[in-house]
């Protein structure tokens, strides 16, 4: 699995929502896979990012959907009978939006993960059935806590043998 670390400058960190929207749009433009944005359950980022994705660009929006916590890891939040890169709504069997916002990885998820949490993605993978992200995007803000968390994640991924890259933005 490929893991890319984006080390944010002060200006990018100040416009954190804008950078997430920009990176999300870039990932959608370059890939046909679903994108999951992992957010801590108690984080206010979920609501503000939800709004920002609808209004990021004056002439368009980034289609997305919030995942509910009711089906965590029980296999009912996706359906493998459809395209392997498309998550399925368990209620009406309709494909979910190309971008998912949530605090967990849906079962059978195979796509790109943008991780905004303090935990490595493999912690989420261990809690869910049959998840196989193809790529992970990690964001590192220019503060001491974020840098320390980034180092912890880097070491964790390195020990698992993942392909690691980093970009200063």
How would you characterize this protein structure?
The chain has 169 residues and is α/β, with parallel strands linked by helices. Helix content is 31%, strand content 20%. The chain contains five helices and seven strands, in the order βααβαβββαβαβ. It has helices at 10-14, 16-30, 45-55, 121-126, 144-159; strands at 2-7, 35-38, 64-66, 99-102, 112-115, 135-140, 163-168. It has a seven-stranded parallel beta sheet, with helices on both faces. The longest helix has 16 residues, at 144-159. The chain is globular, with a radius of gyration of 15 Å. It starts with a strand and ends with a strand. The relative contact order is 0.26.
Order of helices and strands: EHHEHEEEHEHE
Mean pLDDT: 85
Q: Roughly what percent helix? A: 25-40%
What distance lies between the first and last C-alpha atoms, to the nearest angstrom?
Answer: 22 Å
Instruction: Going across the biggest sheet, name each strand in turn.
Output: 3-4-2-5-6-1-7
Find the structural class using helix and strand composition: alpha/beta
Instruction: Please describe the biggest sheet, giving its number of strands, its sense, and whether it closes into a barrel.
Output: 7 strands, parallel
């Amino acid at each position: 699995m490929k893991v890319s670390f984006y080390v944010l400058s002060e200006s990018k960190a100040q416009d954190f929502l804008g950078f997430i929207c920009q990176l999300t749009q870039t990932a959608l433009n370059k890939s046909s896979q679903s994108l999951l944005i992992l957010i801590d359950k108690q984080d206010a980022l979920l609501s503000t990012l939800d709004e920002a994705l609808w209004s990021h660009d004056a002439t368009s929006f980034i289609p997305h959907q919030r995942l509910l916590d009711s089906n965590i890891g029980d296999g009912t939040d996706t359906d493998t009978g459809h395209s392997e890169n498309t998550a399925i709504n368990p209620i009406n069997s309709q494909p979910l939006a190309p971008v998912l916002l949530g605090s967990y990885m849906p079962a059978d998820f195979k796509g790109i993960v943008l991780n905004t949490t303090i935990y490595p993605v493999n912690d989420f993978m261990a809690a869910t059935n049959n998840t196989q992200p193809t790529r992970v995007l990690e964001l590192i803000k220019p503060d001491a806590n974020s840098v320390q968390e980034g180092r912890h994640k880097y070491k964790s991924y390195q020990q698992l043998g993942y392909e690691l890259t980093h970009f200063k933005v």
